[in-house]
Design brief:
- The chain has about 120 residues and is of the alpha+beta class.
- Helices cover about 30% and strands about 30% of the residues.
- It is built from 3 helices and 5 strands; from the N terminus they run ββαβαββα.
- α2 packs across α3.
- The N and C termini lie far apart (about 60 Å).
Length: about 120
């Protein structure tokens, strides 16, 4: 099988395609959008959850039922990771995906929520 996408040619052997499950997400009327947002250990957990939830609830394409979900998920070496799950109409998936990434970053900046990134400390001596 030969599929041309984004000016790339992808070859999928028939055996691989015939023996693997095929999931067509585009047929579902509603889809869940999952995110992981990281915040510094210096931030208030409840504030981070509130900021993410407020952004989700304000988005016009996020469904209210089932309700958005935001919880602390992981204590990493340099960050607290929060899981956010939203339900949207299938056609709105990518709009919400990209909007949330941008809008949560802006909301974190406005609320002085530090988003950690890898750093190297160099000591001279």
């Amino acid at each position: 099988m030969n599929i041309e996408m984004f000016k790339e040619t992808i070859f999928i052997p028939n055996g691989s395609l015939a023996n693997a499950p095929i999931i067509n997400y585009s047929t579902a009327p509603e889809r869940r959008v999952d995110f992981t947002f990281s915040a510094s250990y210096n931030n208030d957990i409840e504030l981070v959850k509130k900021v993410i939830m407020d952004v989700a609830l304000a988005h016009p394409k996020v469904l209210k039922d089932p309700a958005p979900f935001v919880r602390l998920d992981t204590h990493n070496a340099s960050s607290l990771d929060f899981t956010c799950r939203l339900w949207v109409k299938g056609a709105d998936y990518w709009d919400v995906h990209f909007d949330m990434l941008e809008q949560v970053k802006v909301a974190c900046d406005k609320n002085d929520i530090e988003i950690p990134y890898p750093q190297i400390v160099v000591h001279n001596g």
